[in-house]
């Protein structure tokens, strides 16, 4: 059955002409000539057997019929445009690789490596999502998850990705009063201690590893590592950070680690994926590449 629908060109010309109330400006927007737009409007009026505009010398006036038609047509054009954009950006399930990762871990460890994978495997469309809450792991929507050890999911396959070491860091600016002094682990107690709310044992474990005790570990606490990192860089105190997160700032001199060497922890970072996706090409390819990358460059 033939649909009683005018041409899309005529509708686009009509919509632009209503917004501008000018065939000339509508033509400029649509990269057409003024006469082409005028002809499309005339064809549309003949198609509808209604006048949509009143032409008064060089001025256009929208008729009541034109206003009513515009009101109905614009939402339909918006729907058509949105549907086309969704289809244009639609991803092939066979080539999409969706990775969920801890935000700071992704920023400081994964991202510097991901460009290489994308370049060597252009057949995969990569999506990286933030893993803010392990409980939100959705095996239907995610192919690979990079997470901190201890969180496991039913019917998931997990691989050791990285061990963890931590280091006590601070801004060099707060050490100015002690300039020239040789610092030891006990000197951290001369400064405010910065905390991560999700790792309440970080300071007690660090102090115990250095045979130190403190009556009070009070200090500012932060919800995310990137906040803790910035607080340390801006001189708020001493923070304990995973080495992979502190590495860049230590190299640039924004942070220093004068109290001791990095300490290994019993914790690890894992690479996991749903068991029913274990044979997907994108999962296998990325898994093998990243595990190899982790073994070569920490």
UniProtKB/TrEMBL annotation:
It holds the Pfam family HTH_1. Keywords: DNA-binding, Transcription, Transcription regulation. GO terms for biological process: DNA-templated transcription. InterPro entries: LysR-type_TF_proteobact-type, LysR_HTH_N, LysR_subst-bd, WH-like_DNA-bd_sf, WH_DNA-bd_sf. GO terms for molecular function: DNA-binding transcription factor activity; sequence-specific DNA binding. Residues 6-63 form the HTH lysR-type domain. CDD domains: PBP2_GcdR_TrpI_HvrB_AmpR_like. PANTHER family: GLYCINE CLEAVAGE SYSTEM TRANSCRIPTIONAL ACTIVATOR, HTH-TYPE TRANSCRIPTIONAL REGULATOR. Belongs to the LysR transcriptional regulatory family. This is Glycine cleavage system transcriptional activator. It comes from Marinomonas gallaica.
């Amino acid at each position: 059955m033939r649909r009683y629908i005018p041409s899309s060109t005529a509708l686009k010309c009509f919509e632009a002409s209503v917004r501008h109330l000018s065939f000339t400006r509508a033509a400029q927007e649509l990269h057409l000539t003024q006469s082409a737009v005028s002809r499309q409007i005339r064809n549309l009026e003949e198609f509808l057997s209604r006048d949509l505009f009143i032409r008064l010398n060089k001025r256009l006036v929208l008729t009541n019929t034109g206003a009513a038609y515009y009101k109905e047509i614009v939402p339909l054009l918006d729907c058509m445009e949105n549907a086309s954009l969704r289809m244009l950006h639609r991803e092939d399930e066979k080539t999409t690789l969706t990775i969920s990762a801890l935000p700071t871990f992704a920023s400081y460890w994964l991202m510097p490596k991901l460009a290489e994978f994308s370049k060597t495997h252009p057949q995969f469309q990569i999506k990286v999502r933030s893993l803010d809450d392990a409980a939100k792991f959705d095996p239907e929507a995610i192919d690979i998850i990079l997470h901190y050890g201890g969180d496991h999911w039913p019917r998931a396959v997990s691989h050791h990705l990285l061990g963890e070491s931590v280091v006590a860091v601070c801004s060099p600016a707060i050490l100015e009063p002690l300039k020239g002094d040789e610092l030891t682990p006990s000197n951290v107690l001369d400064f405010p201690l910065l905390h991560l709310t999700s790792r309440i044992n970080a300071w007690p474990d660090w102090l115990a590893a250095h045979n130190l005790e403190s009556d009070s570990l009070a200090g500012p606490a932060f919800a995310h590592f990137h906040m803790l990192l910035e607080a340390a860089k801006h001189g708020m105190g001493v923070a304990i950070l995973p080495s992979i997160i502190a590495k860049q700032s230590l190299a640039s001199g924004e942070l220093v680690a004068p109290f001791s060497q990095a300490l290994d922890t019993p914790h690890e970072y894992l690479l996991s994926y749903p068991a029913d996706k274990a044979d997907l090409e994108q999962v296998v390819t990325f898994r093998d590449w990243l595990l190899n990358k982790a073994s070569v460059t920490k």
